[in-house]
Amino acid sequence: MAGCRLVRVGRVCGIVGYVGHRQALDVVLGGLRRMEYRGYDSAGVAVLDGRGELTVERKAGRLANLEAELELAGPGRFTGTAGMGHTRWATHGAPVDRNSHPHSDAKGRVAVVHNGIIENFAGLRAELEAAGVELTSDTDTETTAHLIARAYDAGPTAGDLPASVRAVCRRLEGAFTLVVTHADQPGLIVAARRSSPLVVGVGQGETFVASDVAAFIEHTRDAVELGQDQVVVITRDGYTVTDFAGEPAQAKPFRVNWDLSAAEKGGHEYFMLKEIEEQPEALANTLRGHFTDGRVILDEQRLSDQDLRDVDKVFVVACGSAYHSGLVAKYAIEHWTRLPVEVELASEFRYRDPVLDRDTLVVAVSQSGETADTLEAVRHAREQKARVLAVCNTNGAQIPRESDAVLYTHAGPEIGVASTKAFLAQIAANYLVGLAVAQARGTKYSDEVAREFAELEAMPAAVHRVLSTVEQVRALGRDMASSKAVLFLGRHVGFPVALEGALKLKELAYMHAEGFAAGELKHGPIALIESGLPVVVVMPSPKGRAVLHAKLVSNISEIQARGARTIVIAEEGDETVRPFADELVEVPAVPTLLQPLVSTVPLQVLAAEIARTRGYDVDKPRNLAKSVTVE
Ligand code: F6R
Question: Torsions phi, psi of 288, nearest 5?
Fold first, then answer.
């Protein structure tokens, strides 16, 4: 344990709490199964029986390890109708049993699960050790269990669990969601949040808390979104919300607009495969209701038309695939609005002193709405007085909460760690932002906006057609599974598609993959080409972008001449490219700016199939988690 104090332990975890009339263990495990995408380094549960006994079990590795352990323990050990659970993604500190949650105090009367980082934990730990408390893990979380137990045992909050939790929360720095139980209080669970997600589920004679509504959607669709620095007490009869000082506070009820089937695999081997197939629906839902009376409408619009008219530059900030969606949208937004658009990795944005003022529109794109880098970029932008519009797939997440306006992507829950349907929905939503700004600024006439919107509306059908032809891509994936590396090339909007294709392959198949702007090839990367190397080329339309098309055909012939195996994604009927394609994957003809919505799909399928063939878990790639709430 020497030196452990210096280890910062952070998590992007899934947490769930339950009080009701069912066996808590079943409810909690069901919730954890649906939240395992948030982290799978360890899992744990705690159940309170009605006689003041608290039973905890936790196990390193996937939830299945914990379930096997519980099986061994046999039925009966975990009876009780209140409980909590946790699934962990560790950033520092070994994912071993003793670091797994729930954490307890020395007497085993308190159990705590936690998502986030307690930044001042070293000081709190030193204080506890000085008071003679022996800590048994390397985590920051354990300190909270001891502190809450001590606050409950003596002093002004003695015997009052909610007050004890609030008192400890006031001392914590960093981002956290905590769920706390005490053996003396079997009928209630206390949860608190600061900058980490927490929602309440309100059922009939049962109440839930969780990081994500997916954890309780099986039981209720009535949810409540907690605000910043709030504490909620749940009992089987309902919930009460206060701030950290104990003053009554408002939380926002909402109804979840998707059901259990959306959060289940529905006969698919992996969530990702289901989510790839759901893309037409995700696009249609994202667009639905956003064009009314001849105008593009945003969701939670706290920006006036005048604000949008005043915009003189746009930044898109995001990470990973969401960043690629921004790179795609840059072409459309600049074209439609005639404004300069910069697309920035959120993790770089605030460290390079970007030029921002109140006429800058920052579009923060995030599926989860809780990515720490993107959230910090939003905060930085707002400090500099820029207007922030969030594009987000998660109702009430932190990024939309802290933004001036929101456009929700209605892709439904995305459980597979690799983004697929959310990515396509992000592109569509970014385009809506572009159209809304163009409309406000008058750089597009209303009939032009209507035409662009109609073209977007035709995309679900186009994506559907792509999906009906992917068997060829699957066969190709199986064939490519033993390749050592794959390159991806594109131009114009095809360039970010190439980057996205490479990212999918890296994260799912653990294969070296690189995306390039095809024009850059001769400036260095062409040296990588060797006999048999697969190179995936995303072709522009021969009609829409004839000049680019011709240039890309030359690029393909150059690499083919050097022995590469060319896999070409091209528009149906593109005969010019056929002689240069060792494999030709055809996608429907669509307007140039919308091409990424069709050409990305075969690349997703390719990566998933290569990963499957190599025997990897497509939904849970190694070292990754769905939401990255640490910088
Ligand atoms: C890749 C992927 C990630 C996310 C990135 C941002 O398949 O899923 O690169 O796109 O971590 O996540 P959000 O959109 O939740 O901010």
Answer: -55, 135
